[in-house]
Amino acid sequence: MAAQTLVLPGEAIPSDILPIPSNPSLALKLGPGLRHVPPSTITSVLAGSLCIDQKKNSIWVENNSGRYIPQPNDLVLAIVHHSSTDWYHCAITPHTTLAQLPQLAFEGATKKTRPQLNSGSLIYARVLSASKHTDPELACCNPSTGKSEGMGELKGGMVFDVSLGMARRLLLARQREEGGLVVLEEIAEKVAFEVAVGRNGKVWVKSGGVKETLLVGRALQETDREGLGVEEQGRLVKKLLRGI
Amino acid sequence: MPREAEPSINDRAFLLQALQENIRLDGRALDAYRHLDISFGDDYGVADVRLGKTRVLTRISASITAPRPDRKFDGIFTITTELSPLASPAFESGRQSDLETHLSRILETSLRRSQALSTESLCLVAGQKVWALRADIHVLDYDGGLIDACCLSTLTALRHYRIPDASVKGGDLTVYTPVERDPVPLALLHHPVCVTLNFFESGEKWLVDATLMEQQCSEGEIVVAANPQGEVCLVQKGGGGEVDALVLLRCVEVAMGKVRELGKAMDGALAKDAKRRDKGGMSRELRAENER
């Protein structure tokens, strides 16, 4: 993450910090929190830090608030609410309508070998389609390859709520460099655990015992709540590990 | 379509497993309250209680009306609760849910019917004019412990409220503005506080001040309202699951300890606020530039 630029709502983004496209005909991509005012002004509509991706020629505002709105390709943790003949109806957040998960959208599922999920089961799924006017659709396998890629029903463990910004940071490929997060790496040196991060602000953690699972969850929640830096995260993890 | 966030099977199993090992998800002891924070508004009678993530704001207001014909000497005291969708996606505005009914019944019994507020003291002219006192409870955020927070918030607001002073001379009623005469505190006879305990493992284990998730996983709950002097005003058991009589007695005993704890926190907050308002103290009152 380069030097952070903080923006406030209504602030105009100076044109000299906009990404320079490799090809002049390439259009600039505006992400969440930015608005184009013709002819050539870009203003922010959110308060947060300005993020710029030179390679993708895109610019957006990262902030840590708001409710989750499903977007295609997001990985989410959902709870099965009820099932009908061909679908599971799953709750992604309590605010939005139920998402639909086809019963055959699992790895190797056929009409005879479909997974049986009860109401209340936890699933890790990808959002296939989402729009304002229809219910979001989920899938637990990659539609092109049919492989599960880690998605499906999650057994055991516990789900912890984190903010949406934290969930996005946790999903970054390089957490330490881009997101400034080392908390999971630090814990992993001492305790073995599994995590699944949902873009809807939920993190599933499973470890050997109750104490270990809670340690990971609490470390994540505290890092999120207090906005801890890299060094502070290390100190927090050391403090928590002493309790075990 | 908003609805209550139900915990998944995994969460439920994990919570119960942790409880078997005497661990709560937020690291509290089984009989510990969450962090309690009581603050007040600029006006008298506005109390904002935060219990962990639960937040309740109560406002007391008073107006003058005619008394009920069958109760000529009693003022009117009403408690209204407002569970808005702001607090939880499960709350709908405009429709009274079961939770709201349950909440208002408990508040009614613990605060109104236990005669915490002497309604006779609200009488101005017998049979003609009385104070109608109104407590508006707004739930701003909801993470369990609603009854405890609402009861505490209402009582704190009542203790904080100052009602305009009034006098009757020859049948004429005069209500004084705060400038003319300092408003007076309400006549509260005792201070009942609610404590909720939730049961697990077929009544073997109980928790004080459950969070929303613990509440959803529990088998039953018991609400105890008592005052710090040790007088029980209400015991209500709900949620199914049976509880042993001895466990119930033990629960009331534990609740009593918690009531004292909460009472102390309330006293502390009120004293702190009184100190904040009393800038300068007596010396300011006696100064020459004071108008009065």
From TrEMBL, chain A:
SUPFAM superfamilies: Eukaryotic type KH-domain (KH-domain type I) (SSF54791), Nucleic acid-binding proteins (SSF50249). InterPro entries: Exosome_RNA_bind1/RRP40/RRP4, KH_dom_type_1, KH_dom_type_1_sf, NA-bd_OB-fold, RRP40_KH-I, Rrp40_N_euk, Rrp40_S1. Residues 28-67 form the Exosome complex exonuclease Rrp40 N-terminal domain. GO terms for cellular component: cytoplasmic exosome (RNase complex); nuclear exosome (RNase complex); nucleolus. It is found in: Cytoplasm; Nucleus, Nucleolus. GO terms for molecular function: RNA binding. Its main location: cytoplasm. One of its GO terms (biological process) is TRAMP-dependent tRNA surveillance pathway. Keywords: Cytoplasm, Exosome, Nucleus, RNA-binding, rRNA processing. Residues 157-208 form the K Homology domain. Belongs to the RRP40 family. This is Ribosomal RNA-processing protein 40. It comes from Letharia columbiana.
From TrEMBL, chain B:
One of its GO terms (molecular function) is mRNA 3'-UTR AU-rich region binding. It is found in: Cytoplasm; Nucleus, Nucleolus. Keywords: Cytoplasm, Exosome, Nucleus, RNA-binding, rRNA processing. One of its GO terms (biological process) is nuclear polyadenylation-dependent rRNA catabolic process. It comes from the Eukaryota. Its main location: cytoplasm. GO terms for cellular component: cytoplasmic exosome (RNase complex); nuclear exosome (RNase complex); nucleolus. Residues 33-164, 192-256 form the Exoribonuclease phosphorolytic domain. Pfam families: RNase_PH (PF01138), RNase_PH_C (PF03725). Residues 273-292 are annotated as: Disordered. The keyword Transport does not apply. Belongs to the RNase PH family. PANTHER family: EXOSOME COMPLEX COMPONENT RRP45, EXOSOME COMPLEX EXONUCLEASE RIBOSOMAL RNA PROCESSING PROTEIN. This is Exosome complex component RRP45. It comes from Letharia columbiana. The lineage of its organism: Eukaryota, Fungi, Dikarya, Ascomycota, Pezizomycotina.
